[in-house]
Amino acid sequence: MKKRLALALTISMIVILITASLAVAAPAAKRDVCHFDKDAGIYFLISISENAFQAHVDHGDGGIGDPIPTMPGYIFGDDCQEVAYQTAYFYKVPSGSSDVVSDELAGGKVNIITPTDNVALIIQGNVVGLTASTTYDAWVRQLFGYTGPSIFSVPGMGYYKLVSFTTDEFGNASFHINLLSNDLPGGTYNIQVAINQNSTGSPSYIGTTIIATQKYTTVIVN
User: Fold this and answer.
1) Separation of alpha carbons 37 and 31, rounded Å
2) CB 34 within 8 A of CB 57
3) So what's the pLDDT on residue 8?
4) Full residue range of the structural domain in which residue 101 is found
């Protein structure tokens, strides 16, 4: 009996030690952050624990792609460089056509960024208060000359369905579009971003426009 009790206690101690060692061996995930150096007056890239990210943000730091707290109209680039952007807000489209957009704000917006090098245009969008758990398509209009990938397109009209997304339980979602320089020639574009509900799941389905930015936002691609 004593031998069995001693064996049981030994096994229990081994299990406790293994569990403790596994807990110690699982470090928190890392995340890049643009940290502000007050003495130098600049931001620089550092890698921190995911658990510490919010504390850094509360003290004026930010993540890649986030707005720069000290510079309205700019976001952090990949190396914390300053990247200018434009904001276009979503409006309700009771007509169902992006040709006729109301003047009633719908919630949500897109940030339009024109970086350099191999990326010609970035569109970062978020939608608020749409139908929950529903699939929508993001279309960009007046994108004449674009030759890159798309889910569906009407090139003659400059219409491109570039990404699909599904809203969460509150009807909110975000999406991200990257257009490469090889696919979009430099020049001036007057674009509109439209969000259509996709009730079929078919790539070629156009659907009804629910919200859209106003016609048009002028973007200069280098």
Assistant:
1) 18
2) no
3) 46
4) 83-221
Tokens representing residue 31 in the block: 């995340």
- 145-201 residue pLDDT tens: 999 999 999 999 999 999 999 999 999 999 999 999 999 999 999 999 999 999 888
Count of other CB atoms within 10 angstroms of residue 132: 13
φ/ψ of 208, rounded to 5, equals: -105, 135
Same domain, 74 and 127: no
Question: Are 67 and 110 in a shared domain?
Answer: no
179 versus 115: the higher-pLDDT residue is 179
Residues 39 and 68 in one domain: yes
- What tokens does 105 get? 């704000």
Residue 177 located in a structural domain: yes
25-34 contacts: CB < 8 A, separation 24 or more? 31/63, 32/63, 32/64, 33/57, 33/61, 33/62, 33/63, 34/61, 34/62, 34/63, 34/64, 34/66, 34/68, 34/76, 34/80
Which of these, 113, 127, 48, lies nearest to 76 by C-alpha position? 113
* Residue 91 sits in the same domain as residue 32: no
Q: Quick check: 140 and 216 in contact, CB under 8 A? A: no
d(CA 18, CA 163) in angstroms, rounded, equals: 46
In a domain, 7, yes or no: no
Which amino acid type is present at position 184? L
